[in-house]
Amino acid sequence: MSIHTQIGDWFDHFHAYPEVSWKEVETTKKISEILTAMNVKHHTFDDVTGVIAEIGEGERIIAVRADIDALWQEVDGTYQANHSCGHDANISMVLGALAYLQEQELGCRIRFIFQPAEEKGNGANSMIERGAVDGVSHLFGVHLRPKEEIPFGKISPAIHHGAAIFLEGKVNGIDAHGARPHQGKNALDPIFAIADYIKTIHFSPYEAYSAKLTKVQAGGESLNIIPGTATFGIDVRAQSNTVLKELRDRIEQGIHSIGQLHSVAIELEWSDYTPAAEVADEAMELAKEGILETFGEEAFAPAIVTSGSDDFHFYTIHRPDLKAAMIGIGADLGPGLHHPKMTFNYDALDMGAKVLATTLRKASYQS
């Protein structure tokens, strides 16, 4: 079987059996089985999902990371695990790159990190804590890109992701009869005020940022009860880590003020912070050379700036000396990442694997 065909078969399997963050048990097992069949040394962990593998020899180590988890979302009226972010493609492209590299001479060891829980924003930290980037000089990632960023056939040497964080809140008011609102504290009123408030936060128009309500839950089946308790969620993003911190501070200050205005306690919990990208010029240049050598000038696309986020960038937060870049693969992907019916041109999988293999081979010879 050709590597091109094998990549497609791998994708079909992972797409058919998605698993959500921290529960990628069968995905981990399948990756391990594939690596065993390829005679690649690897190891798993007793306490978390994920796999780390290596090929090549020598003291020096470079690495590539693939995220392996799926989203939990509604598809055709049913909530289920779903690979609408393309992590099934990322696994397949990285395994494909490994297969291509097995046929080539390498200048150092190459580590393959199959990481859990990217969608939760903390899977990278679990791999960091278990030594995934210990001794690593260069780190690469790969991800399919939406058609509005780059079309099929184009490949970018770097993705400049933005920073993101989620806020979950709970309003603690008092239930009341619909005919006697003065006897309670309507939990929905402060939430509506929060929705209006976050639209009034402004920074320089040259900065990219956003904050928006993504979840509100309150009340029950009885429409004559004013709900005293409600929960809400806010998705917060910025292109820089500095702006994200200021945006977070202003949101928190405003919500506390709204709570005081409505005489209710509002509990807040921030979670799933992912930092903005720190792209190394040297890693991006190696990726560019990989694109040009593999597919020529006509396939090259400039670096991408996107408001999306990825916990890949925790690796460089932990190791500032790490030379890192994530390669973006044009795939005519639509309607968009995280859309329940997301699809793409499957020929992009082999293109991604080949470019990644060339980039890693080049990086393996860097001093």
From TrEMBL:
Xref: InterPro entries: Amidohydrolase, Bact_exopeptidase_dim_dom, Peptidase_M20, Peptidase_M20_dimer
Taxonomic superkingdom: Bacteria
Ranges of residues in domain Peptidase M20 dimerisation: 170-253
PANTHER family, sorted: AMIDOHYDROLASE AMHX (PTHR11014:SF122), PEPTIDASE M20 FAMILY MEMBER (PTHR11014)
NCBIfam families cross-referenced by the UniProt entry: amidohydrolases (TIGR01891)
Name listed for the protein in its UniProt record: Amidohydrolase
